[in-house]
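Request: Could I get any protein with tokenized structure?
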Amino acid sequence: MPLPSLASVHRAGATSAVAMNYRNNAYVADQVFPVVAVNKESDYYKEWDQDDLMRSQAEAVRPGVRVRRIGVGLSDTLYTAVEYGIAVPVPRRIRDNADDGVQLDVEATETAMDQILLAREVATMAVVTGTVWTGATAIAAGDNWDTGGGTPIENFDAAVKGVKSKVGADSICGLISWETRLALIRHPDIRQYFGMTSPASGLPNPYGPGGEITDAQLAAVLGLKKLYVCSANYCSTKEGQTTQTFTPVLTDTAFVFYRPDGPSRTRPSAGYLFRYKTPNAKNYYEEAEDQDVYECRETYVAKATCLPAGCLITGTLA
């Protein structure tokens, strides 16, 4: 393989910058489970329980007596980060025939990075929906919100009160899918708060442009500090199969949870993304195929770290 040219070295730097700055607003994994940088691929981490969160441990101190020592210790729970990677080739013939202004380097890098972030979204939502949270017993919606049934406000009230009573904090957030969001903004219980009638059209919303209920307004009605909407879809079948199935990453489950404003390994959160180093992006030339390759990798694992800080609401959609 020939030595890299000055041009290829310059593109490598640009590739890293493109990968680090790439964002897709459909992905919310790192907002639900904040990213904590770790310097080992496998290590022990702290799991908080309600005693850790609520215990009052400061004591009156006599002169000349040491004050009580406390600290956040590590549990015997081990995380092991997994490396995810993907590469996008750009054959030389494609590059030579590209129109002026087409940024194949950027497009290939962003395609690879989007795949990395999608894998992170799928992995994180699997932890969210697969964990037995104890902020409150999992709440069944009772009837589907997208058919106008059920009592979504009461369901969220119960979840918020449960989590808040366990963690003793006000910063309670919510996570829903884009389908659940659509069901909520058309639900008669929600629209009644804004003087609306018809779920499809209704009266103009005096609080938002064009009668649209915003995420901030919806969060306020549901008693949440912040509402995150997972809008991502993915193909859940293997490449090459005749029938392809496209599935929302998050479906008919809502998640009410606590996360700190300033995440760290010593502060409780419903969950964390433990990430080893930063995402890595590089490009290189494959001589046999006569093509440039744009590769992205990220090493992380999503972990539930405080079970009392979360509650699921299930069966929101028909």
Summary: Confidence is low (pLDDT under 50) at residues 1-11.
